[in-house]
Structures are given as C-alpha cells and as structure tokens.
Amino acid sequence: MTVISRLPGPVHQEWDWQLQAACRGEDERLFFHPSGERGRAHDDREEAAKRICAACPVRKRCLDHSLAVREPYGVWGGLGEDERLALLGPVARRGR
C-alpha cells in the first residue's frame, strides 16, 4: 500500500510530467497485472508495457516518482515491481 505521507503535494510542477508520458491514453491494465496473472501472460503484458516506457520522454521522472513513493504495483519508468524493489534495497523489502 502506498504511504500517502510520502507523496508530494498537489503542486502542478510535481505532476505536469504525466501529461507528456507515453502511456497517457493507453489502457492502464497493460501496466498493472490482474490478480492471479502468472507466467507467460504476465511476462508478455509487462514486456509490452516496458516497450511503451522505452520511448517515453519522461521515463526517468516516472521512475523517480515511483521510487520516492515506493509504488508497490505496476510498471513505472520501465521497471516492474520486483525491479524497483531491488533498487530500493533490503530496507524496502522488509517493509513490504
């Protein structure tokens, strides 16, 4: 669960980058796995999402945001849940 106290305030400069995101207008189900999705279906969906992220002009900003708020779900900034967790290190894994 996202801890709301870590989210930045509702200042438009903090969120304007989302207007430029390559995923804007895409089906959000591509970026967040349904309950119970495993194996090939999961891998194919996640790879499709990451292809969109690869060409995104705000990819780094998206990834930075997801790490700052410790977003536990979905593909953000071209990285999946486990990849982001690995970047956050052992402290984040204990709090999961």
TrEMBL record:
Keywords on record: 4Fe-4S, Cytoplasm, Disulfide bond, DNA-binding, Iron, Iron-sulfur, Metal-binding, Transcription, Transcription regulation
Organism: Kitasatospora terrestris
Function: Acts as a transcriptional regulator. Probably redox-responsive. The apo- but not holo-form probably binds DNA.
Superkingdom of origin: Bacteria
Binding residues for [4Fe-4S] cluster: 23, 53, 56, 62
Protein name per the record: Transcriptional regulator WhiB
InterPro entries: 4FE4S_WBL (IPR034768), Whib (IPR003482)
4Fe-4S Wbl-type domain location: 22-86
